[in-house]
Design a protein that fits this description.
This protein is of the alpha+beta class. It folds into 3 domains: about 80 residues, Roll (Membrane-bound Lytic Murein Transglycosylase D, Chain A), CATH 3.10.350; about 130 residues, L,D-transpeptidase catalytic domain-like (Beta Barrel), CATH 2.40.440; about 80 residues, no CATH class. About 20% of the residues lie in helices and about 30% in strands. The chain is built from 7 helices and 21 strands.
């Protein structure tokens, strides 16, 4: 265990159990919600089972616990639950999806709800932009996009034009269609893909989460999809940073005509320089440049104190 993880565990030791469907009181002046928690693993625990039990994405749990073997967790291992979030820098209304953290936020009156999601895999990027919900469907049929059918046929797995509702339908029991109409927020018959790059561009949710979202969200709800691998927040005199691994994309992306953004990925040094510049302009004193470099390189997905405002 490295010293960074040791400090994380010691400073956030809250042994607890977490119910699904995270939601918190929301005030525009409070840019951070939730709190980091920890659990002790049991002999039968797996990363996929723990992620779903605590309404966390698989990659989130993996990045918060990089020293733990996801295929063999020793009983009694202290594990971090990354249930502490800096709200994305986007309009706090309707639905906001931040692709690098594979997480969806819902703003409703004085509460904010947050759910893990599966997103488009490399070569099938989820498009970004300002969208809205145009329809809702229970027990949806899957009208398989031509590009998906062609790709699967090349792999020797031909698909029909339409997959009816049922246990073999990858859309699950509920679907919300976006105004970029080839794309949905939907459930899944394979919950292991939630919290990963697992789809052809749609947003996948745990079955219990999409059911709740389906009944919560009306048609015409705005949906803002962004790419923010680095989130920051000021709380009083404290400056917080939350770092996620940037998404690596392919130039021949199947969804490039639908607004899939293939902007160059900044290097660690470039990201560090931009962060240091922004902190200087805001009169924020960083803990140290070495600490910021470690925080960005670690990409734990946990909000961590990075400096103080003068």
């Amino acid at each position: 265990m490295n010293i960074f993880r040791f400090i994380q565990i010691i400073t956030c030791m809250i042994l607890t159990s977490t119910a699904a469907a995270q939601h918190y009181a929301y005030q525009p002046s409070t840019p951070i919600i939730g709190k980091i928690q920890t659990i002790q693993a049991r002999s039968y625990d797996t990363f996929e089972q723990l992620a779903r039990t605590h309404d966390i994405g698989y990659d989130e749990l993996l990045h918060a616990n990089p020293d733990i073997n996801p295929y063999k967790i020793p009983p009694g291992t202290v594990m971090i639950l990354p249930t502490h979030y800096i709200l994305p820098q986007a309009p706090h209304r309707g639905i906001v999806v931040n692709l690098p953290e594979k997480r969806l936020y819902v703003y409703r009156s004085h509460r904010v709800y947050t759910f893990p999601i599966g997103i488009g895999r490399a070569g099938w990027t989820t498009p970004v932009g300002q969208l809205r919900i145009i329809s809702k469907q229970k027990n949806p049929a899957w009208y398989v996009p031509k590009a998906v059918r062609a790709t699967q046929a090349e792999l020797g797995n031909p698909l029909p034009a339409v997959v009816p509702a049922g246990p073999n339908n990858p859309l699950g029991d509920y679907a919300l269609r976006l105004s970029k109409s080839n794309y949905l927020i939907h459930g899944t018959h394979d919950p292991s893909g939630v919290g990963k790059r697992s789809s052809a561009g749609c947003l996948r949710m745990y079955p219990e989460d999409i059911k709740r979202l389906y009944h919560m969200i009306p048609i015409n709800t705005p949906v803002t999809i962004i790419k923010q691998p680095l989130k920051t927040a000021q709380v009083g005199s404290q400056f917080w940073v939350e770092s996620h691994s940037p998404l690596i994309e392919m130039m021949d992306d199947h969804n490039r005509n639908d607004g899939a953004h293939l902007e160059p990925t900044l290097s660690l040094n470039e990201t560090l320089d931009h962060l240091m510049k922004d902190m200087r302009q805001a009169h924020i004193t960083p803990h140290s440049k070495a600490y910021l470099r470690m925080l960005l390189n670690d990409s734990s997905g946990l909000p961590l104190l990075a400096g103080r405002i003068l």
